[in-house]
Amino acid sequence: MADITRRLGWRHLRGAPTAHIRHHRGGKLLHDGPGLSFWFRALTAALSEVPVDDRELAMTFHARTSDFQDVTVQSTVTYRISDPALAAARLDFSVDPDTGAWRGTPLEQLGTLLTETAQQHALDVLARTPLSAALVDGVSAVRERVAAGLAAEPRLPATGIEVVAVRVVALRPEPEVERALRTPAREQIQQEADRATYERRAVAVERERTIAENELASQIELARREEQLVDQRGTNARREAEEHAAADAVRAGAEAARSLKLAEAEAARSVQLARAEAEGVREVGEAKAQAQEAWLRVHADVDVATLHALTGTRLAENLPHIDSVTISPDVLTGLLARLGTPRDPA
Predict the structure, then answer these.
(1) Which long-range contacts (CB under 8 A, 24 or more apart) does 229-236 make?
(2) Residue 38: beta bridge partners?
(3) 83, 128, 171, 269: which is deepest, by most CB within 10 A?
(4) What is d(CA 184, CA 188) in angstroms, rounded to the nearest whole number?
């Protein structure tokens, strides 16, 4: 909308760079172009403002496919007014000289023209397409058909309109049909998810089995190595025992030899001692025999009475202590008789 200010019966218009201003007075074109700024009188001026920027027109309309299913088409058309003079001649872009607002609704008329033209081509292509194909390839088909139809529409160039781009945002069926169509896809997706879950579980089980087999193999290898270690320890212990036994045998042999030498030396010493003792005994015996012989020679010339007295004396020496001795008369008589009897000189 143009910016218009009042000054003492005059009006000043200041347009935007994207707005094409046309100023007529008395049927003559005084100002024509975008972004103009000028003074004018409201009673004699005829003003029009045509936007020349790119504009977006959102469209939503219903259509029916070849299998009698209703669908909703959401699209957007980008357009611009390439010929402002022609557009101002075909559509009412005049503005109020006091407020700068459009007196009519030119953009709504232009939007209706574009919407009906695009809807006509979209309905034409969807009417020959089944719902399944429309949901798969309908967006691109509708976009190409609408773009081609708008480019070939003669009313648009005649109005100074240029279509920049056509976009089809969505093509949706009725909610009940959409839910029905989603069910198989959801079931398939669920099946794929279940299959992926089962495969993941199978992979996990396989990995667990592999891990268990690896652990079992590790345990078997560990047991085998422990068995080898035990065998090696037994071999080492047996070898050590053999070495100890050999050392003990050598030590025992040495000790036996030493003991034998000691025994031989002890035996030789015992023999010598025994010989010495025997020699001593013999010598003592000979001395005793010689003493006895001498003793006998000494007593051989002694009379019997003296021998008897000596015998009594020796007997008295060897007997225990006697406090008193009783001699009977018979013994005393015999002794006295023997003492009184003279010995035979022979």
Answers:
(1) none
(2) 13
(3) 171
(4) 6
* Residue written as token pair 């268990």: 212
* pLDDT over 60 at 343, yes or no: no
Alpha-carbon gap, residue 73 to 62, rounded angstroms: 6
| 113 alpha carbon, distance to own chain's centre | 67
Give the three-class secondary structure for 249: helix
Q: Hey, what amino acid is at 301?
A: D
Decide the pairing of beta strands 70-81 and 55-64: antiparallel
- Tell me whether strands 55-64 and 3-7 are parallel, antiparallel or unpaired: unpaired
Taking the complete model, does pTM exceed 0.70, yes or no?
no
**Considering only CA atoms, which of 56, 61, 76, 171 is closest in space to residue 116?**
61
CA-to-CA separations, 331 to 270, 319, 335, 336, 337, in angstroms, rounded: 57, 20, 6, 9, 10
Q: What percent of the chain has pLDDT over 70?
A: 86
- Please check the confidence at residue 180 and state whether its pLDDT lies above 90: no
Q: How far is CA 245 from the centre of its chain?
A: 55
Name the DSSP letter for residue 328: -
Count of alpha carbons within 13 angstroms of residue 131, beta-carbon side: 15
* pLDDT tens per residue across span 282-329: 777 777 777 777 766 766 666 666 666 666 666 666 656 656 666 667
- 248-272 burial, b at 16+ Cβ within 10 Å, e below that, comes to eeeeeeeeeeeeeeeeeeeeeeeee
Q: What are the residues whose beta carbons fall under 8 Å from the beta carbon of 308, sequence distance 6 or more?
A: none
At 233, the amino acid letter reads R
